[in-house]
Amino acid sequence: MKKVSENRWLIVLGSVITQLGLGTIYTWSLFNQPLVNKFGFQLNKVAITFSITSFALAVSTLAAGKLQDKLGIRKLTSIAGIILGIGLILTSFDSSLPMLYITAGVIVGAADGIAYITTLSNCIKWFPDKKGLISGISVGAYGTGSLVFKYINGGLINNVGVSKAFLYWGVIAMALIFIGAQLLKDAPLIISNSTDSKNTKEFTVKEMLKTKEAYALFVIFFSACMSGLYLIGIVKDIGVELVGLTPEVAANAVAMVAIFNTAGRIILGALSDKLGRLKVVILSLSITTVAVFVLSFAHLNFAIFFACVASIAFCFGGNITIFPAIVGDFFGVNNQTKNYGIIYQGFGLGAISGSFIASLTGGFKSTFIVIGALCLISIVLASTIQSVKSNQKIKHNAKLVEKIA
């Protein structure tokens, strides 16, 4: 049994190293102004790059499951890491916006999405009895990668310039992902009787899409993602425009988002194993609702602003962590990558919806009101749906995995 434990935790280690490399893409905001200064691009057009990256990341997850079936987790993650690194290295030679959109946007985003969802889902499959904890560790590493590389990439930009920074970033990220991939191993399939009831069934994508729970989870995930992703993109501007902070003080909110985002991934992921995932989701959505309504209606000062920012970031990180485990609880672990890939499109939609709503409604406050309303709807949905996997079946699957390992 000791050997089993060591084998499984070695896979966790490989997933953590891989996710550290993948999470570096969330340092993109550091590169916006330096690219503007060097090439004379418009800032808003450079910033579109990360929206393209996020969208490509989400869409690519749809193909991840089939690619893993053909190549295996180790080979697929290795290839994705190499492609991601090449995309960043090619970006170091870019001098036009279209090329920037292709290399740093489409190529990097697609490679990141495929490696992210497959390594995360595979890691969860190895621990069907600890989905929340393992998801928290893996996704927490993704958030830690963004936090650590804020300093690494920031130093590279200052010391070697923005173009060469992409080159070094690409090499480092490629190395981390490739090294982590060598420790990965495909999780065993859970064999279930085709005559099992809904409580023990391993759902295919088609079967999942026939359930009302799938659509409810999509709406909940979309709402949770939009709140966090919109905040990440404009948190500094909110501090300056709504609170009256100096740009230097408001910039501290960026670091706070990264810290609380990572903390939420680890703490709420582990908590969901003990309290129940939907209960934690309802709690986090409730906190988010209060925070966005405070930002919309309250007279803001330094303390209130940072408390709201920290709360939203913490809950966003937790929800990103809990949802892969929820999909496993609801629809089984055998098709975890494919099934979560469908629900994960809520992330891609959430990435662009906040800015779109802001352009239609005309500002930060009105957008937060819409987000708060969506969170209230999602709270109702989360309160009415039930997991389609039983605790007894989950424990049985955990024992089966240990025997196979």
Specify the overall morphology: globular
Element-level helix/strand string? HHHHHHHHHHHHHHHHH
Q: Strand portion, in percent?
A: under 5%
Number of domains: 2
Content-based structural category: mainly alpha
Helix content: over 70%
State the distance separating the first and last CA atoms: 10 Å
Number of helices: 17
Largest sheet: none
Task: Tell me what the CATH architecture of the largest domain is.
Answer: Up-down Bundle
**Residue runs with pLDDT of under 50 for 5 or more positions:** 193-199, 388-395
Return Rg in Å: 21 Å
CATH topology of the largest domain: Growth Hormone, Chain: A
Q: Using DSSP, what is the number of strands? A: 0
Oligomer: single chain
Q: What is the CATH superfamily of the largest domain?
A: MFS general substrate transporter like domains
CATH hierarchy class name of the largest domain: Mainly Alpha
Q: How confident is the prediction overall: mean pLDDT?
A: 86
Task: Walk me through the structure.
This protein is an all-alpha fold and 405 residues long. Helices cover 82% and strands 0% of the residues. The protein is built from 17 helices and no strands. The longest helix has 30 residues, at 97-126. The termini are close together. Residues 193-199 and 388-395 have low confidence and may be disordered.
